[in-house]
Amino acid sequence: MDEVGQLLVHTTDGVPANQRLAYWREGVMRRMVPLGVEGTANPFRGRMRRIVGDGLELIEFASEDVVAVRSPERCRIDGCDDVTIDLMRRSSNTLMEHGGTQQVKAGDLYLVDYAKPSEVRRGRHCTVGLTMSRRLARDVLGDDIAPRAGMKFAASGLARVLWHHLQATFDEAGRMAVAERAAAAKAAKDMGLALLQATHECMADPDRFAHGFHRAALGLIDHECGDPNLTPERIAFALDCSRAALYRAFAKHGEGVSAAIWQARLERARRTLGSPEGIGLLVAEVAVLSGFREMSNFTRMFKRRYGMTPSDARKQD
């Protein structure tokens, strides 16, 4: 049994060109059957990276032109009924037939139900996604899963935060420890379930998925903390929940929303001061880029947090 947090890599590198599709079909893709694309001059090439989670897995899949099919017969035979929230990270041309026919563009976040047949025609592409057991999805959606096959999520709020989290997780996966990847997978699961619940009930429920909303809010704060106008009210609005519910989600972790915003700004400033990107920037410019309006406030908070002034921190690095 694979260890939670383990990173597994599958690639066609080193496999003879005329054996790659067979290798991919028999040894890698468990849910779909890959087929060659007529008229393409390029032999199939693919790479899959999987992060093992508890009751789920995060999957990054990249390949050249391919057709992937899940037939009604395969659905009956293998009994696989997992549910995936997939993000199309890069795509030259993708057409998906799954609960209807639609084009999938780079940036689209959508639902795949492996209990239903599907066919996907992809040019060169890369997807990242969260695959969970049907039991987890059913706890949120009840029996209302199949009608949502192929559904695209709105590119805002929780969906946008999960969008960023999935990409960042695979960008950093090779540099993360096993425990860190396990934590990233759990955060993705919590955010994914919170997103399904919010989509299903047309309103987010932070009290039910407090951990997922907490992680989503932290992700949003980390991404937006350079904006000096970022407030708890704006975060609650972006996540489609009340300010009181957001505060409760943070309180369960012994934290405050405003404190988390200021901490993210300080951490961004500290990283910038010690990074190649920060070379040539005045300390005052770093403060502005990190969301601080007043230099005196920035210096005071930075020294309280790190025990040194921003200028001293830059010399130390």
TrEMBL record:
Pfam families: AraC_binding_2 (PF14525), HTH_18 (PF12833). One of its GO terms (molecular function) is DNA-binding transcription factor activity. SMART domains: HTH_ARAC. Gene3D superfamilies: Homeodomain-like. Keywords: DNA-binding, Transcription, Transcription regulation. Residues 215-316 form the HTH araC/xylS-type domain. This is Transcriptional regulator. It comes from Reyranella soli.
